UniProtKB/TrEMBL annotation:
Keywords: ATP-binding, Kinase, Nucleotide-binding, Transferase. Residues 19-289 form the Carbohydrate kinase PfkB domain. InterPro entries: 1-PFruKinase, PfkB_dom, Ribokinase-like, Tagatose/fructose_Pkinase. Belongs to the carbohydrate kinase PfkB family. The lineage of its organism: Bacteria, Bacillati, Actinomycetota, Actinomycetes, Kitasatosporales. This is 1-phosphofructokinase. It holds the Pfam family PfkB.
Length: 315
């Protein structure tokens, strides 16, 4: 079982539009309503692969009730933590050329009692988990050290932790030695305080995060591929993608693929890239099923192209 923790879940509405035009009335060509949040997306991808998952998330108000209903309809077990504030609602506008514009609401502020209830719910469910995936931004009320406390408690319970967050929350958690962290290029650059212009820059930044405590770094470089840097070695992976429809949740699908395949080594990296590549070909934040995957399109190598210039450099 893969347990996911989403401290700031959302109700996500995605509209497909031909193009954005400020001040104009836009007519959508497609619409989706999905339960959102990075950990929620990981659970959705795990469930789409036919694996058991439990999603721990604070829920409040009508949007929170709808999130729970949508997850239940997808066969995902929900461990809700009731909160006084309403779960946030987000909007995404997906243009036909693959450009995505997102409007993310801040979400409710969690009280100290609600914060502790969230931690206690994770502790209670962790005994049955193969992995705990802690994902996304922290809502108002949670200190940057909250993820560090969750990682410490999970490790005391003997659980493996995958952490997908950024900024101070990531840096504060690293000394607790999360088993894998999953930054994108921008988050990786921000964590080490310097820009990334090449694949080699990303490798060196990943090594820095390992020096700060991360046991492994699964770094997403967008269209340039993914890196896995761990004590066992360094691998670089890419995948052929014919067309990008939406990149919403692609990184979350990638993390799910990594954990489903064991969470270590080149096989898990290949699974991560296959899931991420499949996700970008789907509408909105739809998660790929095994039928959507194309493992033959994935290449994994230990011969990392250190001098390759990134198509999407991180400032």
């Amino acid at each position: 079982m893969i347990l996911t923790v989403t401290p700031n879940p959302s109700l996500d509405r995605t509209y497909e539009v031909p193009a954005l035009a400020r001040g104009e009335v836009l007519r959508a060509t497609g619409e989706r309503v999905d339960p959102g949040g990075k950990g929620v997306n990981v659970s959705r991808a795990v469930a789409a692969a036919g694996r058991r998952t439990v999603a721990v998330l604070p829920l409040g108000g009508a949007p929170g009730a709808l999130v729970a209903d949508l997850l239940d309809a997808r066969g995902i077990e929900v461990a809700p933590v009731p909160v006084a504030g309403a779960t946030r609602s987000n909007i995404a506008l997906a243009e036909t050329d693959g450009v995505l514009t997102k409007i993310n609401a801040p979400g409710p502020e969690l009280s100290p009692a609600e914060q502790e209830s969230l931690l206690e719910t994770v502790r209670r469910l962790s005994r049955d988990a193969d992995w705990i995936a802690c994902c996304g931004s922290l809502p108002r009320g949670l200190a940057p050290s909250w993820y560090a406390e969750l990682v410490a408690r999970a490790h005391r319970a003997g659980c493996r932790i995958a952490l997908d967050t950024s900024g101070p929350a990531l840096l504060r958690a690293l000394p607790e030695r999360p088993d894998v962290v999953k930054p994108n290029a921008e988050e990786l650059a921000r964590a080490v305080g310097r820009p990334l212009a090449t694949v080699g820059d990303a490798v060196r930044a990943s090594v820095v995060l390992r020096g700060l405590g991360a046991r492994a770094v699964l770094a997403s470089l967008g269209a340039d591929g993914q890196l896995l840097v761990s004590g066992a070695g360094t691998w670089f992976a890419t995948a052929r993608v014919s067309a990008v429809r939406s990149n919403v949740g692609a990184g979350d699908a990638s993390l799910a693929g990594f954990l489903i395949a064991g969470g270590a080594g080149p096989g898990a990296l290949a699974s991560a890239v296959a899931h991420g590549a499949a996700a970008v070909r789907l509408p909105g934040s739809e998660m790929p099923t095994p039928a959507d995957l194309d493992p033959a399109a994935v290449t994994v190598t230990t011969e990392v192209p250190m001098d390759r210039v990134l198509k999407e450099p991180a400032p």
